[in-house]
Amino acid sequence: MTTQTNESADARPKEGRARRVLNAIGVQNISLVIALILLVAFIGSQNSNFFYTSNLATIGTTVAIVGILAVVQTVVMLIGGLDISVGSQAGLTSVTSAMIFMATGSATAGIVGALVVGAAAGLFNGIVIIYGRVNAVIATLATFAAYRGLANVISNGRAQGYTGTDAVFVFLARGNVFGIPVLIWILILVAVAIQLMLHYTDIGRNIYAVGGNAVAARLAGIALNRYVLGVYVLVGVVAALAGILLTARTGSGQPTSGSQGLELQSITAAALGGCSLQGGRGTIVGTVLAVILLGVLQNGLIILNVNSFYQDIAQGALLVIAVVIQQKRAGGGGVGLPT
Amino acid sequence: MTTQTNESADARPKEGRARRVLNAIGVQNISLVIALILLVAFIGSQNSNFFYTSNLATIGTTVAIVGILAVVQTVVMLIGGLDISVGSQAGLTSVTSAMIFMATGSATAGIVGALVVGAAAGLFNGIVIIYGRVNAVIATLATFAAYRGLANVISNGRAQGYTGTDAVFVFLARGNVFGIPVLIWILILVAVAIQLMLHYTDIGRNIYAVGGNAVAARLAGIALNRYVLGVYVLVGVVAALAGILLTARTGSGQPTSGSQGLELQSITAAALGGCSLQGGRGTIVGTVLAVILLGVLQNGLIILNVNSFYQDIAQGALLVIAVVIQQKRAGGGGVGLPT
Amino acid sequence: MAASQLQDTDEAVLVLDNVSKGFSGVQALDAVTLRARAGEVLALMGENGAGKSTLLKIMSAAHAADSGRIVLDGNEVSFASPVDARRNGIRVVAQEPEIMGNLSVAENVYVGALPRNGRLVDRARLFEMARSDIERAGFSGLLDPRAYGRDLSPAQRQIVEILRALVGKPRVIAFDEPTSSLSDHEAEALFHLIGRLCEDGIAVIYVSHRMKEIFRVATRVLVLRDGRVVGERPADETDDSELVRMMVGRDLSTLFHHTSHEPGRPILSLRNLTSADVHDVSFDVHAGEVVVLAGLVGAGRTELARAIIGDLPVTGGTILVDGEEMKPTSPRDAIRAGLCLAPEERKTQALLMKRSVKDNISLAIVGQLSRWHVIRRRQEREVAARHARRLSVRTPNLDNEVSKLSGGNQQKVVLARWLARRSKLLILDEPTRGVDVGAKADIYAIIDQLAAEGAAVLVISSELPEVLGLADRIVVMQRGRVSGELGRDEASEENILGLSILEEEAA
Amino acid sequence: DKPVTIAYIQKQGDQQYFVDEAAGAKEEAKKLGNVKVNIVDVGTDSNAAISAMNVMIGQKVDGIAMVAPDQQIGPQVVDMAKQAGIPLLASDDALKSGDGQEIPFVGFDGNDMGHKVGLAAGKLYAKAGWKADETLIAAAYKPGLSACQNREEGALAGFKEAISGDMPKVVDIGTDNSTVDAQNRTGAVVTAHPNIKHWVVWGCNDESETGAVTALSNAGIPADGIIGVGLGGYLVCKDWNAGQKTGNKAALYISGRDVGSAAVRTLVNAVRDDKPLPKKTVAKTTIVTPENWKSVMGSCS
Ligand SMILES: Nc1ncnc2c1ncn2[C@@H]1O[C@H](COP(=O)(O)OP(=O)(O)OP(=O)(O)O)[C@@H](O)[C@H]1O
Ligand SMILES: Nc1ncnc2c1ncn2[C@@H]1O[C@H](COP(=O)(O)OP(=O)(O)OP(=O)(O)O)[C@@H](O)[C@H]1O
Ligand SMILES: [Mg+2]
Ligand SMILES: [Mg+2]
């Protein structure tokens, strides 16, 4: 009687190593890889300059800032939230870092100051959401406007300072370690650290639990509020990192220029990478692949000298195609709106 | 056995008329009304010009375009979707209407053409979502870029034509009926029509069902796909209406100016009005109140001559305050992410 | 009375003393006292909406009581949160399992208490712990610790919910209708588990509407009605009819109505129907006939039902409706052809939780109730009220949100929806899940009446007494195939069970 | 003096140039006495500009200065102002009425600004003696903006005028007018043109131009291989101020402050004296270089 129809239930999948590796990447991510390969092949066949190491470095540095934001956006989306204010936080911390640097002459002070401001901005988001009981989208839409205003107020709407003569900022913007630009290293470090956290620590598993089913998570004794607050603080800190990199790259603290639109880009990448807006689903690998895919796409369109209006159309079309491939591979009809 | 405690099952709630009216508005909406009254009182006390009839008409005409978009955004959110491309659709149809008008000299041709283009754009969104199985956010993010690109391509990135001499367009932009601007009438008509549809027809009931529980809706025999497609076509048509009004107001077809950002504004209004991103929850009354609240807020900030940087901060702060009031009134502590 | 109750608190692990709780318009609990003693199984009984789940929710601090005390080990306590209650050894296996789809079974069980190695989750140990838990609890073979939550069947979800309660050091475990989605086999394993928990000195509270189970596991029975205690009895000093009388307030002469009628023309004929996990299924359901599909959990009955109404793709064979072949591609097609399915999972598959009772009942008929798409609202309300009354749905009014109803009443709303849609063939998947005895009898009577009126009814049920009491004919399934057909007169618990598992034991 | 209220409806109020313009307007108002200036930022949104006109007409202001997000809305706003009987002054970008008449204007000539930038770049190019087939012109601007399109056309014409011989190839880099975006996109352009030795860069604003120049130097192009001419000067001056060797060789300095104060002065005078607005008040623009910028611009914030 115990030998029911479900012996298959606990049978481990019998499959080869290759298959296991594939599984680890995930079917959704494989589609992204395929889309990426096709795209690279196409662009490369049209213009072989694409494969220059320098160009690959260009793509990497181009996506680094939006990449780290997409990675933390993934974490927010995993707990079922969203952060529309990441771009404004980056702008706010960009001017802060430059202004503190100009006042103190110390890059470290500027960087630390920006990180503190970022953490505070993230904490404020979390507090509004948790204790004000404001929906995460509305709360961060509100601070999206508020932080941008704040950045403009403290800087009077002007680019602040000049960091092009400071070794630390120059290193961040243009340095290399083992031949790989520092910006790319930073993206790798952030992505790997968060991937490890999500995958191997109880914090990470709890994040999935909170987003997967908040009721169950709460009953299981997970301190939901602390997780939500923690995640928003994390976003604030990483947004501050993005702001610092913005300052380093542009040589001055920019209140809005360069950081507007980062929210949509980071959400696009996370969603393309397989994050669900309902929470509980998504991976860092997927997000990073999506970031790279979008970066390659933009780079390719410029290299192929596509008119910028057509770039918009191509970008839209390829976004759709990438997801359609994903869905066809994942199979299954599905009911109603795809998630 | 049937004579349990439930003879009351079919008893209508026994409550006074006042209470019934309040219930019809809904607790969430009452908070919006309160917030609105406080805001109006404050602005009016600072600057009595606020109460000029002309200013009230100005507020109405200002919110008309974003208002009709917020109303249809509400419908999309009710079925559990989202349409990021509304602004781009409005831009596309704005140039289309102007270009057709310039080519044919007929305002009717321009308007009909724009509506057809809008319906097609909406249908395309729906097809990508339903048959491509692409998540609604990604699909409309993609067409957000693609339609903007298309609008720029057909117009070469330039504003098109001049409609200020055409009686129809002038009527739309500046006409009055019974002393009320045409733009406001259009908002009222769209909102009332959709409210009636949602409330009194089986179509509306089924829209709530699709968003509330797609599996249940399907098993109850609701043709999910048709509803999703239908809703996106509706959005396309209303976005076209918005595009036509943009053309009429600015006197020329604008590929991007004036329509960028409408997606965020319409989503903000719908969410502030009580729509849930998970679908199945939201009302037109709430959305319209939120649109008015945001319109009054913006108008007040301009009238009170608040520096535009502080406007951002004030806007963010008031958005948060409005929702916090809502939540406090709705009561209930709640843990984790508020919905 | 309160004072006298306090005297025996010292022997009880947990006492809920004079607890009251009201929701807007409903007094769910009115001065209820419950004592849970170590090593005892206290059965909690009562009609749907009597307040059982609410009582358990107060125990686990999911709700706060309006008044009354909670006494743990003789000390008055007040739990700040469910976490706090849990930390104090109080566990409630909820009526509706809460599962995290993207976590593994092991993680679902240990969520909040994952084994760690420093800061890292010790995955090997986690899976090993989950595996041994499953085995010790007697559910081996039913659940893979590595499977994802989203892939679990209702029964498996329930098992995860049960396992979760065992983690740590439970002192009091309450099971809220744990068997409503389990078949006899898993239920049996659960009873063994409960026996063991008692031996370990854990106080068990058990909520169920199944009389047989009560006498199988309980040592004492506490009966609630309308939020009040109507009596408490040692299990061996009471019987079915007394309990029913206490719960319902009157005698229940017959649970099962069964009038035999002449089966008419075949309404549904399956010929070698095959889909992913269903193979070569052939049988007929005639007008005026109640056919029950029996079998163990996972036998493929639900899948068969979904295939019939076009919710899952059919890969082979034919479906004849009234003698004509039907190829439904969606439930919509099937419904239009006169086939309806009331699904087994009310929360995920049937109800719009945030909508009113009325909207939920009329969901499948708003189209019919409309002219030019405008709903005839008065008529809608009448229809909804009629069906709510017929099924004794307990709700303050029809505009009440369905999420605020008790589990059993939600189930009745689901049935009301499908009764309102008068169809040629009605498929009811576990229609009495979580429904109290009184209402069950009503439902059985309604099913009987539907058949008498000439409808064909196909019921999927895992409760053998229900199978035997309802059926004109019984089709037993096993591993996606029909393993036998029994007439009403030839059927017995033994031969149904035999057909359900025979082949397996041979294999 | 009679109290006067002026509305200044500005596009892109968060850009440094327009921030300066607003500041200039307010300073001038204070200087004139009894003048109130109401600044409204409408971003790049034409529809918001119409709404702002509505609001200000409703508030019965005495005069309106407008920096239109798109010049095509000219007829519409001119009409609105005429109906309300409020004097309207076009600031920065010229506006025409429905019958093609230009309305009174204060500011720079967009095409002329571009022309000066192109001219300066062309002169530097000619002086450097680069060959056309080894040189690429990178024009970084936001493609959907009419003001940018004007400047870009002017720059091309100016450059052609200044050089003799072949015209180098031109690549349009569509940016969102932000530094970072220009930097990101220019990186890819370098990849596409590996054989180019020399670069001429201009843009719709300082952000676009400096972003492109930074990307070029990140790609290893020496400062001597770049002729970058900024538009605005407020970012270009930062390199010069720090004494950095840079590809930014010159910039067209335009003072938002001057335009802002000129606009307010013109409107107030016309209102107080009840006279028509002067047809055209063109503010001065100057090409600045690492050598002369300090004397022209004063400081670099
Ligand atoms: N959140 C709530 N809001 C309003 N009323 C509620 C809520 N939860 C329960 N109720 C009401 O409290 C009463 C008791 O419900 P409860 O869930 O405790 O019943 P139950 O005995 O568990 O019934 P069942 O056997 O159907 O599960 C019911 O009338 C129900 O409608
Ligand atoms: N215990 C299980 N282990 C693995 N898969 C299962 C299990 N139970 C159900 N399934 C899945 O469901 C399919 C058919 O089960 P289905 O739910 O249709 O059976 P059922 O007889 O209706 O059982 P239930 O009474 O649980 O609804 C199986 O083929 C399998 O995919
Ligand atoms: Mg219950
Ligand atoms: Mg089943």
Automatic annotation (TrEMBL), chains A, B:
Keywords: Cell membrane, Membrane, Transmembrane, Transmembrane helix. GO terms for molecular function: transmembrane transporter activity. The keyword Transmembrane applies. It comes from the Bacteria. The keyword Transcription does not apply. It is a multi-pass membrane protein. One of its GO terms (cellular component) is plasma membrane. It is found in: Cell membrane. The chain crosses the membrane at residues 21-44, 56-79, 100-124, 171-198, 227-248, 284-303. InterPro entries: ABC_transp_permease (IPR001851). This is ABC transporter permease. The lineage of its organism: Bacteria, Pseudomonadati, Pseudomonadota, Alphaproteobacteria, Hyphomicrobiales.
